[in-house]
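Human: If only I could read backbone structure tokens as easily as an amino acid sequence. Underneath my words sits a plain record pairing an amino acid chain with its backbone structure tokens. Take your time, and here it is.
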Amino acid sequence: WVAQYQSGEEKLRLGMIEEACRELQSALAAAESSKAEREGLGAILDALGRAQFQAGRYQKSAHYFERALRLWERPADRTATLCGAGQAYRELGELGRAERYVREAVEIAPTEPRAWQLFGSVLIKRRQYQEAEAAERKALSLGGSGIAAIAWSDLAVLHEAQGRYEQSVEALQRAIEVTQAGHARARLLSNLGAVEQRLRRFEDAVVHLRQAVQEMESAAGPRHPDVATIIELYSAALRHAGRRSEAKQAAQRAKEIRSLLGATVDWRDVR
């Protein structure tokens, strides 16, 4: 089962999600039949939880994380799985359970930035904004380049929810600074453009949304539904800026993409 588990982890790292799930399921069956040690079973179950999460199957993801938690004893192993479970339950909308898991994670690993960031993200959804902001800033203070962009993005959501649009703009700019060009940064740029429209900074919104369209096209292709969503925001910004001819052209292009795909995607929640 060890070779199958390692193969599953490698496929997961490469983004081959369904192949990883199949490999890890085989590893789990082999490990259970050979009565592998708790650590081995825990590692496979945790990997399955991560794979199912990436596949968008959050209920299955939570199930595997729960099974892994019953096996883990070392704090480092338990922390990572608690974070995974908290993230899965957050996506399922079971916020009380999500908070319980991530709160335990920060208690047993108070220097782990990912645990604090996840804790903050759950508290934002629970509208516990003061404690959420403290958790996100704790994550930032602990460092970790992989966490900074997510924490700043979370803070932008938090500020926007409270009507603090200037601070939301500042947080999004910080997130963009530490994010490489691509799909994720295109979404951040789009969110920035949307907040700028709230502030009636329409020319700024036009600039950032145009950049978002370009980056999303490069990352996902010209006919991706996310491209259509951003172009719709771009069209609105152009219209508000008084550039009606350009706005009409953009709206028509978004409509053509929608008609080709027959799809509508809501992606404003970056996580």
Notes: The chain is about 80% helix and 0% strand. Confidence is low (pLDDT under 50) at residues 263-271. The two ends are 32 Å apart (CA to CA).
